[in-house]
Automatic annotation (TrEMBL):
The keyword Transmembrane does not apply. GO terms for biological process: DNA replication; DNA synthesis involved in DNA repair; double-strand break repair; SOS response. The keyword DNA-binding applies. GO terms for cellular component: cytoplasm. It is found in: Cytoplasm. The RecF protein is involved in DNA metabolism; it is required for DNA replication and normal SOS inducibility. RecF binds preferentially to single-stranded, linear DNA. It also seems to bind ATP. Coiled coil: none annotated. Keywords: ATP-binding, Cytoplasm, DNA damage, DNA repair, DNA replication, DNA-binding, Nucleotide-binding, SOS response. The lineage of its organism: Bacteria, Bacillati, Actinomycetota, Actinomycetes, Micrococcales. PANTHER family: DNA REPLICATION AND REPAIR PROTEIN RECF. ATP binds at residues 30-37. The gene is recF. Belongs to the RecF family. Residues 3-376 form the RecF/RecN/SMC N-terminal domain. This is DNA replication and repair protein RecF.
């Protein structure tokens, strides 16, 4: 799969832009703040329905406009598909495939993109929400129907949490809040599906991540990943919480039972605090090197290698399991952060993907093997679009 043509209207700093891309490496070059990353962000949106930089869509709409339009023509061998996303500043977004309206959640069925950016260091060093977001975006690419499951869970969670806050304000006791049982059932049903999907994802990523880490770092530091589940009693948002005993629930029935038991045990505490304390919205993906948590123990170079290996293993997983060909690999302003050895190793790992898109402020930071086609960007304008 490759992006053959990208068109933007009122997206970020682009009033209008057209850019053609080719198979193999494509490099966007320009000084910081000119719009290179915006091009990468627009392509990535089709795969994840979001940005790797902001949590809301409104910042992607150009100042003064009500909506942004992103169009991409994708090539799958001899087949061509035109995708369009309309990002509205207010209200629901809209989408089209080959000119026909579709639900926005349908777009990831047609586009697989793995994007690595400096912000990904937060996956390793940030709070649990960064790791949950990484996992859930990959889940959506593996199974687009998970968009609906995750969205439904979020809505149920908000309703349940609103009920807890209302009950707290009225001074109700836990045994007086019988309506909570209805929301518990819905939360458990949707949450169990999310937990199972995340556990399978971690299992499937394990070997590709080990391979990618060794390829990038040139060392075997035994990278591991494991979910800390609140349904098993873990509290990932408490730094003092023990992490050794995890993953005891296996299978949908066991997870559902543990989920229900956890909600029952925490009900009084939830009512007191007005928050839902058990469920996949509070779980964490524990990353280890040499048996130690990456967060707090790994060096800067090891943290970068871990974040890179997560993205590269994601690309390998999608390549192996999907029928649309290779995912598009985007490296957004990555090479400036790496030493010469890691640059060369990374270039070697991604070189055989069908399409690789690189952004860089300094062209010389990009290994020569990837400087096959260069697109120059200046102040929201494509000033050069030619082979060099």
């Amino acid at each position: 799969m490759i992006v053959e043509h990208l068109s933007l209207v009122d997206f970020r700093n682009y009033a209008a832009a057209e850019v053609s891309l080719v198979s193999g490496p494509n490099v966007f070059v320009g000084r910081n703040g000119q719009g290179k990353t915006n091009l990468a962000e627009a392509i990535g949106y089709f795969a994840t329905l979001g940005s790797h930089r902001v949590s809301q869509d409104a910042p992607m709409v150009r100042y003064g406009a009500d909506a942004a339009f992103v169009r991409a023509r994708l090539g799958y061998g001899e087949r061509r598909i035109q995708l369009e996303a309309q990002l509205n500043r207010t209200g629901s977004n809209k989408a089209r495939v080959n000119g026909s309206p579709v639900r926005t959640s349908e777009l990831p069925r047609y586009a697989q993109v793995v994007l690595f950016a400096p912000e990904d260091l937060q996956i390793v060093r940030g709070d649990p929400s960064s790791r949950r977001r990484f996992a859930d975006q990959l889940l959506v690419q593996r199974a687009p129907r998970m968009t609906g499951v995750l969205g439904d869970y979020d809505r149920v969670l908000k309703q349940r949490t609103a009920l807890l806050k209302s009950a707290r304000a009225r001074g109700l006791k836990a045994d007086q809040l019988t309506t909570l049982d209805v929301w518990d059932d819905k939360l458990i049903s949707l949450g169990t599906e999310i937990i199972l999907a995340r556990l399978r994802l971690a299992e499937d990523l394990a070997q590709p991540m080990r391979d990618a880490y060794e390829a990038i770092a040139g060392a075997d530091h035994d990278p591991q990943l494991e979910w800390l589940l609140t349904v098993d009693g873990a509290d990932p948002e408490d730094d003092s919480s023990a992490v050794a005993e995890t993953g005891s629930s296996v299978g949908a029935e066991a997870i559902s039972a543990s989920f229900r038991a956890g909600l029952t045990a925490k009900r009084a505490q939830e009512l007191e605090r007005g928050v839902t304390l058990v469920g996949p919205h509070r779980d964490d993906l524990l990353l280890r090197l040499r048996g130690l948590p990456v967060k707090g123990y790994a060096s800067h170079g090891e943290s970068w290698s871990t974040a890179l290996s997560l993205r590269l293993s994601s690309a390998q997983l999608l390549r192996d399991q999907l029928r649309l060909g290779d995912p598009i690999v985007i490296l957004d302003d990555v090479f400036a952060e790496l030493d010469a050895e890691r640059r060369a190793r990374l270039a070697g790992v991604v070189a055989d993907f069908e399409q690789v898109i690189v952004t860089a402020a300094v062209e010389g930071d990009v290994p020569e093997a990837l400087r096959v086609r260069t697109v120059r960007v200046e102040a929201g304008t494509i000033v050069t679009d030619a082979d060099v």
